[in-house]
Amino acid sequence: MNPQYGTPTNTPTPSQLQHLKLGLPGALARSQASKGKKNNAARAGALTPLQFRHLVRSKHFTSPTNGQCPGYLQCNLVVLDKHDPAAFDFMLFCQRNRQACPLIEVVEGPIIDNDFVAQGADLRTDVPKYCIYRDGNLETEVEDATEYWPEESVAFLIGCSFTYDEALVSGGIPLRSAEEGKNVPMYRTNIACREAGSLRGNMVVSMKPIKARDVAKEVEITAKFPHAHGTPVCVGCPQAIGIHDLGNPDWGDSIELRDDEVPLFHACGVTPQSILLESKVKFAITHAAGHMFVTDRLSEETV
Fold first, then answer.
1. Which ranges of the chain does DSSP label H, i.e. alpha helix?
2. What is the pTM (predicted TM-score) of this model?
3. Most buried among 152, 187, 191, 249, using CB within 10 Å?
4. Which is it for strands 153-159 and 137-142: parallel, antiparallel or unpaired?
């Protein structure tokens, strides 16, 4: 029987971790700079998802994951007690709101036991940062959710728009947030989601500043990724969806909108967090906004 992922046999040694860090792109610099440290790591190439998850698990990476492991599917995370009626309601919510919540996989327990997304990954430790919610309130943010994990859990993995970052860059569309070492800006909207049992609320969107001449190309590229929110829900005119100040996002970092650019708004995987808050779900664990679970699936693989 093969050792479980994460046992001493499969956990990198300190020297191996240092080697992995040398291959990590710019977000490591962002992570370490935020702690007042310098980073002189060579950016020799992207890590594999498994290598990246090792760094996350060992707390050597705790930053947003935009720009990491290009070409691989990234997922938002929602964890509920399997006996809470909200768990069924959330499954139904995903089915009724597929652009906001494109469901990739449902996992019982913390360990993924199949290779559909990431064989042997531990959802308690392999996300850079988690949010813990109780009774509709954010209790805390942590880098390891083990002590909060329900004894009998069900975890929902939901596609993230970071999945198609590489396709956009390859198509000649730069990503300002990643270039500037920032999280993407995310906003509450007036776009109502379809209700499901006890769950109700409005969609959350992320924003990308795109050159006006590249809007059609961006829509064409993102249309190929319905499992990662797909095409924009709004092009320009943020007021039309209830956003009145682009410089003050509800989550993430503000990004400058230049004169030759148009704001494009995509459905966002923070929608579940907003819904759980508004619906005052008894207990939930989610990823922190922008801090995704990186899978072993290629970004263009259909699900």
1. 14-22, 27-33, 49-57, 85-96, 165-170, 176-179, 215-222, 271-278
2. 0.84
3. 187
4. unpaired
